[in-house]
Amino acid sequence: RVQLMESGGGSVQTGGSLKLACKASGFPIISYSMAWYRRAPGKEREGVAAMNSDSSRRYYADSVKDRFTISVDYAENTLYLQMNTLKPEDTAMYYCAASPNPAAALHLAVPDGGPWFEYWGQGTEVTVSS
Questions:
Q1: What is the mean pLDDT of each run of 10 residues along the chain (130 residues)?
Q2: Among 12, 44, 69, 82, which residue has the least CB neighbours within 10 Å?
Q3: Whether the Cβ atoms of residue 14 and residue 87 lie closer than 8 Å to each other
Q4: What span, in angstroms and rounded, lies between the C-alpha atoms of 59 and 47?
Q5: How far is 71 from 67, CA to CA, in rounded Å?
Q6: Distances 104 to 9, 38, 41, 71 between C-alpha atoms, Å
Q7: What angle do CA 37, 61, 115 make, to 5 degrees?
Q8: Distances from the Cα of 5 to the Cαs of 21, 24, 41, 46, 85, in angstroms?
Q9: Which one, of 94, 90, 83, lies nearest residue 122 by Cα?
Q10: Rounded to an integer, what distance in angstroms lies between the CA atom of residue 66 and that of residue 111?
Q11: d(CA 89, CA 40)
C-alpha cells in the first residue's frame, strides 16, 4: 500500500535552513506527481512545492519561491524539500503528498490538495524562531 514518511523537521532561527525528506513505499515516485504542503496553526493546508512525475516541471508557492527547492532521488524513492532563508511565517506542519494523476502538480494552489492529491504522510514539524 502507498505510504509516505516525512522526516527532517526541527527548530531553527530566522535565516536558517532545513532539508525535509519524504520516503515513499508501495509505489514508484517516478510514476506519481509529488508535492509538499504545510499547515500553520489556525490556517488551512496550503501547497508549498510540487513536481510532475519525471520532475521536468516544478511549481512553487510565491511565498517560498527562490528559497525552497523540491527534488527527488528516484533510486531511494525519496522526495526532498530544501528550505533556505527560513522565516517565522514558515512555521508549520509540513506534509508530503502523492498522486497518480499526472496533472496534479499543476493544481498546487488548491488548498489541502483538493481532489488532486490523495495520499498523505503524517507530517513533520518546522518551527522558525525570530
A1: 97 98 97 97 96 94 98 97 98 98 93 92 97
A2: 44
A3: yes
A4: 10
A5: 13
A6: 25, 17, 25, 16
A7: 50
A8: 8, 7, 21, 19, 24
A9: 94
A10: 21
A11: 8
